[in-house]
Amino acid sequence: MRYAYIVLYLLALAGWNYATTYQAWQSRIMYYHFVKQRKLAGPCGEMGGFTRLVASEGGKPDGLEAEMPSFFVRQYTTAEIARYGHFGVLNRPFSVVQFADRGGFEALQEQFVYIAETDHVLMRPLPNLATLDKAAAFSFGYMHCGSSHQPLLDKFAPGVTYSDVQPVGPSPLVVSKPVLRRLAPLWLNLSLALKLDPVADRRFGWVLEMWGYSIAAAKLGVRHDVLSHFQVEGGAGISARSAISRGVYIFHYTYGLEYTLAGRPQGSGTIGEWSLDKRHYGGAYPPRQMQPPPSGASDGTAWLLEAWNEASGNISTWPESLAMGTVGWRRVKGQGIDGSPLASRVSGTEWSWAGIPGLAFHPGGELKTPWGSGVWGAAPKGVDFHDKGFCASAGEGCLFADFGGALHNVRFEADLRRFDSFRLGDGTNVKGERKA
Q1: How far is CA 124 from CA 226, 253, 300, 310, in A?
Q2: Which one of 10, 46, 222, 267 is CB 3.0 to 4.6 Å from 217, fit for a cystine?
Q3: Domain for residue 328, yes or no?
Q4: 218 in the same domain as 290
């Protein structure tokens, strides 16, 4: 039996100031591969329609509704979400409740829905994995409920025991429409209540809304077929071939894929010399046809990059981007200072930034700014920074000065009296003057 595809698209979430662009490009990649896999499934496949459920300010359209079927609901206002610690993910259950209240489910021809997020890419056609009485969901290793959770269950879901709570969340999920309609209000109300409780908030942390869903399901007696092969997620060692051979349907690119240019994993918790990470593109689209991974990288890394490149290359309205590709993101304190004549001359100097004094290039790569600390170093040569030749035209090359979550390449005049900066991603130019 066919299902409808609903992507939870959280536009401009309170507290997520990058959400507009960040969610837009991901949803376009997702939709491209949804259409591709639906065609591969053919007329006998179970993939039905697609709805992008968008929580936006005032429920306003975002301009992509002509490309992707979309349903707009309002997100929580800044004042409303402030009560919940600006935990913007609460807009997920809130959006589903609004979708139900405004007749969204009745408008769907299908009797089942598949809920996904924007960073889910289908690897092959997805059949209907649910029944009218039983949903299907991914098995999350960090969602196992134990006896230590029982006091919270007694408080917020009396009658539920920890063994009733399955290790699932609301995405990826295949579920019948009547079951989801019944679940959504309790999913929302439990999530709100848990967030207001200091003990529950500390215990459930960033996955609190997922716990709101799993506890609500247990309270209402909704059971899931818990599937480890629903999706694959992981870091540099991820294998697409292995995933497909195990019957996996979704590539969830929640983690960055980080390598040295020699093809070795860069290491845990650090940006690679070659890097594919959705978080790089919070303010700008990924550019088309990014540089392939180095020899030795996992086949899963190559698969994901090809999925991005294929989608961006075939979407005619994909915008030109000033963001970097897969090389150049690794910029650590003091990088390249040794051996750089320009860095040696700049080290220890003080400057203004856009007329505001207080910018200091401390020895060793520590950057002091009026807006907090940062890092600086010598920008590597031979890297396409997508900066319109900004660094290539600098005789001594560029330094980088990164702070406030933004990356800047800096080009100095020969006498070190002034500099120009280029903010990677949007090309914003700021000038500085030497103070000491």
Answers
A1: 19, 16, 14, 15
A2: 222
A3: no
A4: no
- 326 found inside a domain: no
Residue 13 identity: L
Rounded to an integer, what distance in angstroms lies between the CA atom of residue 289 and that of residue 313? 7
The SS3 assignment for 42 reads coil
| Backbone angles phi and psi of 220, in degrees to 5 | -90, 0
Residues near 356 by beta carbon (within 8 Å), at least 6 away in sequence? 370
CA 264 – CA 18 distance, rounded (Å): 31
Tens digits of residue pLDDT in 54-67: 999 999 999 999 99
Contact present, 399 and 422 (Cβ < 8 Å): no
Quick one: angle between helices 91-101 and 208-220, nearest 10? Answer: 50
Residue type, 54: V
At 419 the three-state DSSP class reads strand
- What is the DSSP-derived secondary structure letter of residue 343? H
Cβ atoms 402, 331 nearer than 8 A: yes
pLDDT in tens, 109-163: 899 999 999 999 999 999 999 999 999 999 999 999 999 999 999 999 999 999 9
191 with 142, same domain: the answer is yes
Which residues lie closer than 8 Å to 99 by C-beta, 6 or more apart?
6, 53, 71, 73, 105
pTM tops 0.85, yes or no: yes
Within a 13 Å sphere around the CA of 358, how many CA atoms are in the beta-carbon half? Answer: 9
* Beta bridge partners of residue 228, listed in sequence order: none
Q: Residue 41, SS3?
A: helix
Q: ∠180-185-188 over CA atoms, to 5°?
A: 110
Q: Do strands 356-361 and 350-353 pair parallel, antiparallel, or not at all (unpaired)?
A: antiparallel
Residue whose C-alpha is closest to residue 300's, from 233, 239, 235: 239
169 located within any domain: yes
124 and 224 assigned to the same domain: yes
Q: Which domain holds residue 262?
A: 255-314
Indicate whether 193 belongs to any domain: yes
Domain count, the chain: 3
Are 346 and 398 a contacting pair, CB within 8 Å?
A: no
